[in-house]
Amino acid sequence: MTDRPATITPCPNGPLLVRGDLDIVDGEGRPVPRTRRTVALCRCGVSTIKPYCDGTHKSIDFRTD
Amino acid sequence: MTDLMGERTATEYEIGDVSIGARGALSDAILGLMAGDASRADDVVEHARELTDAEAAEHDDDIQLSLFLLYALSYGSLGQHGAQWEWDTRLIETRLVLERVFEAAVRERVGRLELPAPRASEVAEALFEMTKPTAGPSLSRYLARHADAGQAREYLAQHSIYTLREADAHSWAIPRLTGRAKAALLEIQADEYGGGVHERMHQVMYARTLRGAGLDDAYGRYVDAVPAITLAGFNLMTMFGMNRRLRGAAVGHLAAFEMTSSIPCRFVAEGLRRVGFGDDVAAYYDEHVEADAVHEQIAGRDLAGSLAEDEPQLLSDILFGAAACLAIEGCASDFVLERWQAGESSLRESAVARTIAGRAAA
């Protein structure tokens, strides 16, 4: 997807933004479908589309610090 | 605008593939010239000046339809109609007169805003605070739980004004930004346009949603059916995108738009499936649950935050754009919800509105 190394950016009170070439796999090691260059990984635990973020962290007042 | 037979008496014009009715002297003149009568351009500035005293310009049918048509000349959204009029000085002057009235009305509505420090983290935090989800009644929750198939089609028709041109309004701002903010806007917009894959372009996905719901995906088909406030939502973001001096507002608008999208889109997808539509119709909303959870993060820090750091004089307009988005979009949603709760249609009485109602009953 890009020549630059993959980056993971933690968003305050929100998901991890993943940019660049990185395999995302499930518990059995199967690849998780990825349809966009930049994805957001859930880290509050309540997303309905895990491993991706669906914005619900905002409804539960999730804090990262 | 109705006679005893309940038929609209406003003049209808054929513009490209669609029929659009005038909502006052100015929109009548603009539609007339778009339909081929060049002499109508002589009166437009004068008609626009007659509208400068309008109260609540966001609800004024003639102002909002006229702005919509003038912007359509630049978008080429109505069958590429009227390209020769795009830079006509009389129409540009008309647009400026209307934009001044509209912007003043929105600024008055929004009022004074508290400004964060011009640092990316604080700007992002302030924007997330402004847009945080509320637990109360909302149009998307109503759609999830109570709406019927006819109301779901109304919702899709109302949203066709913006969504069949999704992302285009904010794309006007791309060359008006530089540096980090420009890169961030491009990262969002590239995803809006499907990462270069035609069938994943959000506007193309929305056309598929309309067709799947038995609606027409021709741009402008439902203009006659939507109220001024629906047109105002699209006009607002276009005005921000097309005026360089308002580029801060364009950025703030996009941030607020993205930050208020993922959760409502999940409710809308739920509602569409509940009333019996399939994955082909809901796919657009499924896509936005995931996409806008990414976009809102980029928009808060990398786009709005970087712009505030690099051009701190734009900070107040970034916040204004966000507040304007919330005010106008909120007003448009409330309009639909209130009509439905009163047992009425949210659509303007028109021939095309009856085609939606007809399908709903079928």
Main β sheet profile of chain A: 3 strands, antiparallel
Shape of chain B: globular
Number of β-strand runs of chain B: 2
Annotated CATH architecture of the largest domain in chain B: Up-down Bundle
Radius of gyration of chain B (CA) equals: 20 Å
**DSSP helix count of chain A?**
0
CATH topology of chain A: Ribosomal Protein L9, domain 1
Structural class of chain A: mainly beta
Strand content of chain B: under 5%
H/I helix tally of chain B: 16
Strand fraction of chain A equals 15-25%
Low-confidence stretches of chain A are none
Instruction: Determine the N-to-C terminus distance of chain A.
Output: 32 Å
Give an overview of the whole structure.
The complex is a heterodimer of chains A (65) and B (362). Chain A is 0% helix and 17% strand. Chain A is an all-beta fold. Chain A has a single domain (1-65), classed as Ribosomal Protein L9, domain 1, CATH 3.40.5. In chain A, a hairpin with a 5-residue loop joins strand 1 (7-10) and strand 2 (16-19). In chain A, 26% of the residues are buried. The mean pLDDT of chain A is 93. By secondary structure, chain B is mainly alpha-helical. Chain B folds into 2 domains: 12-110, no CATH class; 120-361, Up-down Bundle (Heme Oxygenase, Chain A). Helix content of chain B is 62%, strand content 2%. Chain B has 16 helices and 2 strands. Chain B has helices spanning 25-34, 44-49, 61-75, 89-110, 120-130, 139-145, 149-163, 168-171, 179-192, 202-212, 228-242, 247-259, 262-274, 279-310, 315-341, 351-361; strands spanning 12-15, 18-21. A two-stranded antiparallel sheet of chain B has the order 1-2. In chain B, helix 6 (139-145) runs parallel beside helix 13 (262-274), helix 7 (149-163) runs antiparallel to helix 10 and helix 7 (149-163) runs parallel beside helix 11. The radius of gyration of chain B is 20 Å and the shape is globular. Residues 1-8 of chain B have low confidence and may be disordered.
